[in-house]
Design brief:
Helix 3 (59-70) runs parallel beside helix 7 and helix 5 (104-115) packs antiparallel against helix 7 (125-139). With 241 residues, the protein is mainly alpha-helical. 60% of the residues lie in helices and 0% in strands. This is SCFD2 protein.
Amino acid sequence: GAVGHHGDNLAEKILSVLPKLPGHKTDVMVNMVELTALQTTDETSSIIAPGCLAQPNDPAAKALWESFMNLKQKEAVMEVRRHLVEAASRENLPIKMSMGEVTPEQLSSYIQLFRNNLKALENHCGLIQLVLATVQTLKHPQTCKWDNFLAFERLLLQTIGESEMPSVLNQLLPMIKSYNERTKDDYTCEDFLVLLVYMYSVVGEIRSGKELDAAEEEVKKALVKAICDEPEPSPLLQKIT
């Protein structure tokens, strides 16, 4: 469901990590600054209209979006490179095709070839927006966290099979850290709410008792403290509180 991270699907990741396009529920903002001559500071990115995923007038972009949804992430990223190389070759841009794993840096370097060629940019604008969405998603810190979530969920399924809920909650407890104690790799309050929903969903019926009450009380205390220590609670946390 909505709290699991088992999908190895590029479309799902792009829709999860990139900011929503204003006024839209199912499309995202793609930062287009690196195609311009502006220095990429956060102040300048708001002056440039964002790109998006919906590209009804670009057959190549539509085909690529299909592969984002239907292929595994690794295969989809290879499709991104193939489309980009084909587009660059069609425009006679000096592209060096490389084999092996596709990296976001490699895709960025290919995109730079289009940057000073307005005709090529115009011809392949839809495709380039999807490629930039891929690059920004692969570089996004949330994507790395996605893999951590998946590893934790797998571990959780094993642990729940072998032990009772109180011991699983006690394992979770030291990972709940307040804002000042957290590093970028630690889970945020929102992440914990997602994990808790996942845990209680997969457990099914839980045997209640003093041990469970005590464990749940400790987790509640830690979460409440963490939420109260947030300097700027996210819109979701504000809604919940």
